[in-house]
Design a protein that fits this description.
alpha/beta; Aspartate Aminotransferase, domain 2; 7-stranded mixed β-sheet; binds 4'-deoxy-4'-aminopyridoxal-5'-phosphate; porphyrin biosynthesis; isomerase; glutamate-1-semialdehyde 2,1-aminomutase activity; transaminase activity; 4pyrrol_synth_GluAld_NH2Trfase
């Protein structure tokens, strides 16, 4: 038995399924999850002493790679000053100012502790602001385990076959209308019928929880248009895309401005942070300025702010995203090259520093039903083969991959060579 197998057995005695978040259990690919005990740069090291090139990056936050010295120094210094006061700090203002500078659609921003809290609060605010109950989301998009949003959800909910979770009252779920991602006509039809009853559209501006699907040209623009026409709040869930697909997030990349934005992952530099913000007029409805209640014991925690702010400052260096995007393209080219060399039909796509690959003949994948038609069995074999080669990919065919600044040319060349060997066995 490997150390990971032993540890997994012990974990399952005390933790549901042995994990604190379902996708980690490897149900999407089979086999035993790998237990890690340290990480450095682009690499993860497991309990059995194996090294892996990391394409998950803690599911997105580790955009600088692991163990960045600037973050370690900031955290060590803050630990000596105190790990939390439950009272305002100058750090929180510095962080908020930085977010508002990087994402110009955000006038006011509130810190929370996870992406889930960010989207949950944004939805509540949109409902409170508009006085409407219905919301629109898209099939296969995941916005955290928020009751109203676990309807036809992606990510682990999809991987584990429970896109509609039990425990969510039907009376609540029926207020969530689920439309097809990238289907502009479908959105217009729904709004023509009941647009003035819809509080918010929430969307991943690049979908990263049903593999990786960029928006087709005009899709985000159409959402902006119908929201303007019907007084609906447009929420971009940039928990994954924020500070990753470009410094200004997907809204910066595509030039479409939402009313509210949910943030997470990179904004915490690996510590538990989320945030939501947007137009002053809407954000002023949040307590204590307005009546929509929202709060948090640990919100704005100084350690979390330190890690996040240091990350945001580091990625603000000129050229950071250009370099990271180029690295991501190189990873994508490598996967495609490996597939072509071995005759495996594969489509690779992405945006900025996130990417996805689909075992399919389709030249592009833009719709949820196309994702579901991909060869998941092939993905599983590929995943397991790559794992043996020391490449740690997301353990599900329905997740995006992430790159970090720590990834080297040699790492990418190694990944391409490994992909060739593994694809030859599929
Ligand atoms: N929104 C999106 C787009 C996400 O990808 C995720 C998590 N993967 C969330 C929200 C939820 O974030 P968290 O897991 O931090 O609650």
């Amino acid at each position: 038995m490997t150390h990971s197998e032993t540890l997994f057995e012990q974990a399952q005695k005390y933790i549901p399924g042995g994990v604190n978040s379902p996708v980690r259990a490897f149900r999407g690919v089979g086999g035993t999850p790998i237990f890690f005990n340290h990480a450095e740069g682009a690499y993860l090291y497991d309990e059995d002493g194996q090294r892996y090139i990391d394409y998950i990056g803690s599911w997105g936050p580790m955009i600088l790679g692991h163990g960045d010295q600037r973050i370690k120094d900031a955290l060590h210094a803050q630990v000596d000053l105190g790990v939390g006061y439950g009272a305002p700090t100058a750090l929180e203002t510095e962080m908020a100012k930085k977010v508002c500078e990087l994402v110009p659609s955000i006038d006011l921003v509130r810190m929370v502790n996870s992406g889930t809290e960010a989207t949950m609060s944004a939805i509540r605010l949109a409902r409170g602001y508009t006085g409407r109950d219905k919301i629109v989301k898209f099939e296969g998009c995941y916005h955290g385990h928020v009751d109203s949003l676990l309807v036809k959800a992606g990510s682990g909910a999809l991987t584990l076959g429970v896109p509609n979770s039990p425990g969510i009252p039907a009376s609540l779920a029926q207020l969530t209308l689920t439309l097809t991602y990238n289907d502009i006509e479908g959105v217009r039809e729904t709004f023509n019928k009941i647009g003035d009853e819809i509080a918010a559209i929430i969307v991943e501006p690049v979908a990263g929880n049903m593999n990786c699907i960029p928006p087709v040209p005009g899709f985000l623009e159409a959402l902006r248009e119908v929201c303007d026409e019907y007084g609906t709040v447009l929420i971009f869930d940039e928990v994954m895309t924020g500070f990753r697909v470009s410094l200004g997030g997907a809204q910066g990349l595509f030039g479409v401005t939402p009313d509210l934005t949910a943030l997470g992952k990179v904004i915490g530099g690996g510590l538990p942070v989320g945030a939501f913000g947007g137009k002053r007029e809407i954000m002023e409805h949040i307590s204590p300025l307005g009546p929509v209640y929202q709060a948090g014991t640990l919100s704005g925690n100084p350690l979390a702010m330190c890690a996040g702010l240091t990350t945001l400052n580091a990625i603000s260096e000129p050229g950071f995203h250009d370099r990271l995007t180029e690295k991501t393209h190189a990873v994508c080219r490598g996967l495609k090259e490996a597939a072509d060399a071995t005759g495996v039909p594969l489509t690779v796509q992405g945006a900025g520093a996130m990417f996805g690959f689909f075992f399919t003949e389709a030249p592009t994948v833009t719709r949820f039903d196309q994702v579901m038609a991909c060869d998941v069995e092939r993905f599983k074999k590929f995943f397991q083969g790559m794992l043996k080669e020391g490449i740690y990919l997301a353990p599900s065919a329905f997740e995006a991959g992430f790159t970090s600044a720590a990834l080297s040319e040699e790492d990418i060349a190694h990944t391409t060579a490994a992909a060739k060997r593994v694809m030859a066995t599929l």
